[in-house]
Amino acid sequence: MKTKAIIILLLAILLIIFALQNTEVVRVKLWFWGMDLPLALLIFVCFAIGVVTGIIIPTSKEKKKSQPEEIKKSQPEEMQP
């Protein structure tokens, strides 16, 4: 437990240093929409979108794989190939 707390503390310190060093404001444009925001926030938002996408995509693939198995189980034995 102590090791986990130390790792979390180190990661939090690195995150604070990263945010303080990347305070430069950048312009993000998409079609007719534009926004000014700090670079650290932009990187964090992109990371969060990637994490959410990475969680959703493998979950949907697992559901597709498990569906045929469930269908096979519900069919009588003589109908299964």
Count of β-strands = 2
Gyration radius over CA: 23 Å
Largest sheet: 2 strands, antiparallel
Beta-strand share of residues: 5-15%
Termini Cα gap: 52 Å
Give the helix tally. Answer: 2
Structure description:
The chain has 81 residues and is α+β, with helices and mostly antiparallel strands. It has a domain at 20-46. The protein has helices spanning 2-21, 39-74, and strands at residues 25-30, 33-38. It has a two-stranded antiparallel sheet. β1 and β2 form a beta hairpin. The longest helix is centred in the C-terminal third of the chain and has 36 residues, at 39-74. It is flat. The model has no long low-confidence stretch (mean pLDDT 78).
Secondary-structure blueprint of this entry?
Blueprint lengths: L1 H20 L3 E6 L2 E6 H36 L7
Antiparallel strand pairs: 1-2
Quick summary of this structure?
69% of the residues lie in helices and 15% in strands.
